[in-house]
Amino acid sequence: MGDWKTTSKRKWGMWAGPPNNHYSQMVYENGEPCWQGGSRTTTVTLTCGTETALRLVKEPSKCQYIIDFETPVACQPVLKQRGVHSEL
Hints:
Layout: E1 11-15, E2 25-29, E3 41-48, E4 53-61, E5 64-71, H1 77-81
Parallel strand pairs: 3-5
Antiparallel strand pairs: 1-2, 2-3, 4-5
Organism: Ameca splendens
Pfam family, one: PRKCSH_1
Domain MRH: 1-77
């Protein structure tokens, strides 16, 4: 797996969750260049949970990262109903 923790120059992209829970998924794009490839991107899926915890990190394709993140913040209805958040 790539060194996703030290690649900090990803830029906020957009909220990308499904229509019924739009704020459940964040996309970061245009990160540092990959060796012999494009720039790094990360998709973070937020799920409701009693604690804040990183549940899964994977790299399904070169420099394309998927992160599953559990947090009580995702349990709040405000994330699902209001369009006032630009990013967490």
